[in-house]
Amino acid sequence: MSSKPPRKFFEPLAIGAPAPYRDLPVRLERMIHFFPPHIEKMRAKAAEIGRQVDVLLGNLEDAIPAEAKEAARAGFIEVARDWDIATTGLWTRVNCLNSPWFLDDVTEIVAAAGNKVDVVMLPKVEGPWDIHYLDQLLAQLEAKHAIRRPILIHAILETALGVDNVAAIAQASPRMHGMSLGPADLAASRGMKTTRVGGGHPFYGVLEDAAPDRPHRTLFQQDPWHYTVAKMVDACQSAGIKAFYGPFGDFSDDAACEAQFRNAFLLGCVGGWSLHPKQIEIAKAVFSPDPAEVRFALKILAAMPDGTGAVMIDGKMQDDATWKQAKVIADLARAVAA
Length: 338
Ligand code: GLV
Ligand code: MG
What we know:
Keywords: Lyase, Magnesium, Metal-binding
Protein name: Citrate lyase beta subunit
Binding site for Mg(2+): 158, 185
Low-confidence stretches: 5-25
Strand order of the largest sheet: 9-6-5-4-3-2-1-10
Structural class: alpha/beta
Bound molecules: glyoxylic acid, magnesium ion
Strand content: 15-25%
Oligomer: single chain
Number of helices: 13
Organism: Magnetospirillum molischianum DSM 120
Number of strands: 12
Largest sheet: 8 strands, parallel
Binding site for substrate: 93, 158
Distance between the termini: 43 Å
Helix content: 40-55%
Mean pLDDT: 92
């Protein structure tokens, strides 16, 4: 028996559609901008920042001290009640399921501001059972408080067990919006030997071959997150949901943040987290398609109006598959321009 529930929130697929996610409208979510809602100054700036970002998220979990958890929840509710920016998503990251705060986070937020919140981000998801639990809880609370549209779920992929179960998590509920890589918790869960939040590591690389004229051999750094991001993207795209890179913690190294986000974008992620205001612009630039790529994609679409056949453009072979690649880029460019 299949454990996959029917998808209820999206239109049925058109016959012959290449893949489910291709037919969904592209809603821009290039950055999920985190703010700490227990800090009054941050709440005061929420609407102003909200107009600059695609998604604003009130963080209740890690980085919020235990003694400020209730204040953060109340602060988020205050921001959500006043929220009127239709073009920006309003999300919250609640505390994890086995924490003392999770139940009150979800219950109080849906009761007080359930019609304002688009997505609940659930940390430390280990398997589909975690999503099923939140799914049912949201269903009960939505019914009780007459919430007008379903609140979606975004999972953080940040435990070794979660990575093992990533496909089942992605398919666990029609409420699934997407998934973010959580490199900090994942590093700890896996026993990786790092103290960094995302990004590369100077020790993780391959040494170039020895040669008589090369007494000092260079270590070429590699991306320690490549495997997990690729696995997450496959799981998300197969389920018709979105994949995101998570946090990049070194605020002193914008170039490295940009490079990490760009790897994720190329591999299929649609956005990343911004934890510092300057990462908003980095994410906006990286997760918007490159103008030269857009021009080339539009040439492909124009040369193959029905998406079939084979043509040569600038010496490069194009066919049905590159037409689909071009459509991904052109659709995103259209959403950015809108
Ligand atoms: C995010 O929550 C992370 O652990 O990286
Ligand atoms: Mg985490």
